Amino acid sequence: MPTEAAIVARALDLLGKRNLVLSLHDPSFPAAPGEDIGRGSPYARGGRGFLEFAAALGFTGVQFGPQGLTSAGNPSPYDSTIFARNLLSIDLFALARDPAWAGILAPEACARVVADAIVGPRVDHRHVHAAHSAALAGAAADFAARAAARDPTVRALADDLARFADQHHAWLERDALFAALAGPRGDDWPGWPDPRDRDLYRSQPAAEAAACAQRRRALQVIHRDAIARHTFLQFVAHRQHADLRAVTRGLGLKLYGDLQIGVSTQDLWSYRDRFLADYRMGAPPSRTNPDGQPWNYPLLDPCQYLAADGPARRLMHARVDKLLGEFDGLRIDHPHGLICPWVYRADAPDPLRAVQTGARLFESPNLPDHPDLARHAIARPEQLSPDPRTPRHADNWVRDLDDAQVDAYSTLFDVIVAAAAAHGRDRGDLVCEVLSTLPYPLRRVLARHGLGRFRVTQKANLADPADGYRSENAAPPDWIMVGNHDTPTIWQLVERWQRADTAAAQARYLAARLAPDGADLGAFAHDLAADPRRLAQAKFADIFASPARNVLVFFADLLGYRESYNVPGTVSDLNWSLRIPSDYRQSYAAQRRDRSALDLPSTLAMALRARGQPRTQARDEVLAALDAL
Known about the structure:
The protein is α/β, with parallel strands linked by helices. The protein has 24 helices and twelve strands.
């Protein structure tokens, strides 16, 4: 008897699907019994068990969120560091249990963290940050003492640490020094009392540069213990990630990283000269966010990356090269920010008003309210919309470009594509998070590389046959999903649709897509509208019946959650905190039976039975196997 994963794989092949990827962020992973510290990790036993669960269901890959360091006060992974890994994902129990780590953390320390943990459906980020950091400090101190005493039990670790520090010296030195300075002062570096420490890595005239280098050397001596601790813990985090790669390969799972568009305040301190000083990146008013969003993200200076060997291009290459060495593919967060970023003045007193009246960096050759952007313009005035009613953030603000201009727009994106090729990655595993807007320059760059976009079907406008979120309008390279980490779950939505009396319209649309040949469309739609659970399953079947070859499922949609993971444009302790309980196998099995969570076999069967699907012996065999499941 074939396994469920094997049957699902055959169904996906018949439906023309190349990837079925499960999306979740590190804190959401479940814990193993007795090891719950109040936050999840893919590296812990509970996290690895969940990955085995996903592979057994038939998923072909897992997409993590950004895995950079987050501060004690801000858990958003999209504000995290671009090189350093999040130490909160280190599996403490491995440091106490696994022989490879030589017992550098006492079991009693793990027990104290568990006993003090706040365990529930949400992560208490500040509490976990404090407790986990204290335990890691103890592990680092134990290792340092044993290494100084030339204890043979840590000799192999010390050798590996030296090789790691040498390999990653370019970013690790800066990050370790920042961690040392931020320890007593906090990470709000513009407010540090000594102005010299704010500019340690800024380009300076020769005399000032020599003084900066001397200051760095002095600080590295003063803070050598803190620097050594940070370096060692980054080594641990990177080693545990490398170990996980071997696990996911054995499970047949591709591992996708997240190239977030933002950078942390720490990275701005380290690389400030690589960024524009007078502008920040945000999101313009759009269908998804009508008010726009002032993200306050720095922008790489185009003058430093349009040049073939510019320092900003080198920084981008180093970042992408590291990620592609650690993952099988990348989710490219907000690729607009790499190709045609929306910008606003950094010194504006009202950031929300500023982002609403902002402009695109490369297509503002003659805006009277943004004269400083003219020097960065790629688009020419005659290539812009002549209609004064066209908003400057509209997809058709730029109407045409020549090939040389597309080359310029594509500069940073080409760095990613070239790095993917150098690492032997499939170009189709570059996942472009294009949502409600697709400006013309972005469309040209994606077409240049044969890449698709996101299709989030819960947002589809059923009154507009051409709407980009409708599943039938997807193209084969696209990635399609019912929702993602920034949307309500489908289980929340079907209940809202019933309360708002819009479920019938959704059901009619889905019936036209999914009813088998010869079926009564009205009766099919009636049955869907009457049962919100069946309506949700049909929304999943709809994405499998689409032309898109790649399917993404967010964990909260898989498991039937009725709580949102993140609400964009809000700051709340509820954001980024939703967790999977340790009894997920039992709860999922029960919910799958009553269709209150994703039942993958039945949704695949519905998609295979949909009108227009070819009837073959292979299809009939797979349908019989799916029905048996």
